[in-house]
Amino acid sequence: MKVQLLLIFMFSMPIFGEEKKLTEFDELEKLVANYDRRVRPNAGGKPVTVSLSVYVLNIPHINFGNHGMEITVDMYFRQFWDDSRLKIDKSLNLPKILGEKEIVDKIWVPDTFFVNEFSSKAKENFLRITDGEVLWSQRCKSPLPAQGLVNDFHSTT
């Protein structure tokens, strides 16, 4: 009887002594449990300020087609904004949550577009959440109209 109790006690110690450490994915699931991605941050308050940056990788095509002159731009298109609903619990010591499309599909993202773009194809998605600050980076290939570029180019040469 004493041996059985000792064995039960030895096997139960790690269960009671260990704390389950949350991963960034566990924290994300907790953050989005009651999150409505259709509602913008600060709903009913100030508008969301979305900052943008574009890093052009390549301009692989310049075409004279049905729509006039168009250029195809291969670029990183980055957007930054704050969403207080995505603040990470500081006691977890998780500096950030990193992810791809699966996280983008769970949170509010801005509906940003290029005026007069013919189409756009996102190749890669990267998302980083750091204490409510969101960075969404997409690698895109977009054919865009080149209206005005030819006239501006000729006048500068």
Helical segment tally?
Answer: 4
Residues in helices, as a percent range: 10-25%
Which spans have pLDDT < 50 for at least 5 consecutive residues?
5-14
Radius of gyration: 25 Å
Q: What is the CA–CA distance across the termini? A: 97 Å
**What letter string, H or E per element, gives the SSE order?**
HHEEEHEEH
Strand order of the largest sheet: 1-2-5-4-3
Sheet with most strands: 5 strands, antiparallel
Structural class: alpha+beta
Number of DSSP strands? 5
Mean pLDDT: 78
**Beta-strand content bin:** 35-45%
Shape: elongated
Structure explained in plain terms:
The protein has 157 residues and is α+β, with helices and mostly antiparallel strands. It is 24% helix and 36% strand. Strands 1-2-5-4-3 form a 5-stranded antiparallel β-sheet. The longest helix is centred in the N-terminal third of the chain and has 16 residues.
Brief overview:
With 157 residues, the protein is α+β, with helices and mostly antiparallel strands. Helices cover 24% and strands 36% of the residues.
Helix and strand layout, with pairings?
Layout: H1 2-17, H2 24-32, E1 51-65, E2 68-82, E3 97-99, H3 101-104, E4 121-130, E5 133-145, H4 149-156
Antiparallel strand pairs: 1-2, 2-5, 3-4, 4-5
Give the tags:
157 residues
